[in-house]
Amino acid sequence: MVNPHMYYLNKVMSSLFLDTSVPGEERTNFKSIRSITDFWKFMEGPLLEGLYWDSWYNNQQLYNLKNSSRIYYENILLGVPRVRQLKVRNNTCKVYSSFQSLMSECYGKYTSANEDLSNFGLQINTEWRYSTSNTNSPWHWGFLGVYRNGGYIFTLSKSKSETKNKFIDLRLNSWITRGTRVIFIDFSLYNANVNLFCIIRLVAEFPATGGILTSWQFYSVKLLRYVSYYDYFIASCEITFCIFLFVFTTQEVKKIKEFKSAYFKSIWNWLELLLLLLCFVAVSFNTYCNVQIFLLLGELLESTEQYSDFYFLACWHIYYNNIIAITIFFAWIKIFKFISFNKTMSQLSSTLSRCIKDIVGFAIMFFIIFFAYAQLGFLIFGSQVDDFSTFQNSIFAQFRIVLGDFNFAGIQQANPILGPIYFITFIFFVFFVLLNMFLAIINDTYSEVKADYSIGRRPDFELGKMIKQSYKNVLEKFRLKKARKDEDKKTSKGSGDLAEQARREGFDENEIQKAEQMKKWKERLEKKYYSTEIQDDYQPVTQEEFRELFLYAVELEKELHYINLKLNQVMRKVSAL
Asked: Which residues cross the membrane (predicted)?
């Protein structure tokens, strides 16, 4: 779903529309816009020059342009660009009584409740009249708010001169007012060489404090999914994936019916269910995207005189890619389940499973202190340092401090006294104390796991067990080995024969009962501590189990003492001879 061509296409388009400066003013490009004057200079300069080349609109004369750059004739503009503005009403904020004589108007920040829906200005064309949204595109999440669809909209002409006159007319008639809060510039391109659509959105936000904040979105997506032979091979892989998904779902349902509540005691089973859920979501998103592309793409490509809203299709395509990325991530994590044959991997999983409770307790203490410092930094430096301008930024800034990336000069300049105190105490408590406590928890648990492994207590190897079981099943199907049930019957019969043979040879009935009891203890303990079918690697010992272990050890000691006595008797007889 992602290939390097997407990055290169985004890079080319961003360099064209973001880095191109106004002629004669090298520092004025879209990224450096800070005022309404700069915004109109960009609209009448770099944007106009970037959009209006004959190659954008005349598909038959692409290679007849001798002096144009490859950037232009390698891509085709779909439809016409669109400019959209959202405003807020007057009196959406309250002016303090002492200043009402000096300021009669007040325009607050953008919210859906504060949005201005009335006509303004010349009121003759769509750019002066409010238009409701007729698309299903998601709302835009900007720096200063979440912006709805609709607004004061106009589309650009295919003529460069008409569009320039349009911009000049809007600038002279003050299309941008004090109530303006955001302006969107939307258009879409298509590159046939790599079969990619590039959906571009340039955003200029006008905060209530004044100035302009710019942002942008470049989405390179492959909407025409099945064109080449390789694409059809991918389609066959998708069908195979759906078949496997059905098979794995059936297997998990059978396991749940078989083990019931015991099934949910293993973390690997929860991971399996999560993967299946993500796979079903991915299949649903893929189906929905393909249906929408089939229904809308042809209509959008035919509307060459109107704005073609590919933003809706691009967003759903991005959502689908995100779901695929998360699914593949957890699929890689699942590999740990099958590499437990490796001693190091098995120790790692055992260490994490044992210390999870200690880590949770430590995490609560860690984040209490961490959030306390984040709140402290936001309140002290939030108005002057960009890294602490919001509480969220303060949290990320502190994570960067832990990793060694920090701006101590900015902190010190913002507050010469509290700044160094904040920095030194944060480094001491978080970096030197808490992080070392975390490492101590991991190290202590790892030492315990190594000690258990050194005395032979380790879980069954998952992959080796699977291979061994599969090998046995194949032998049983080809009747090269007797079934397990027959072996169990034979074993139980053999154990009974051994008891009868011991009685014939003169062993006491108490000795035979003790031997059978020790055998039962051994089987029960092995089933408890060496079985990993549904249970985790680490199993805590209850009081009753400890009592059984103690009695088992006492019986073993008695047997060892009895064997020593017999051995001493034999040795005395041998020495006498």
From this structure: 229-249, 270-298, 318-339, 359-381, 421-442
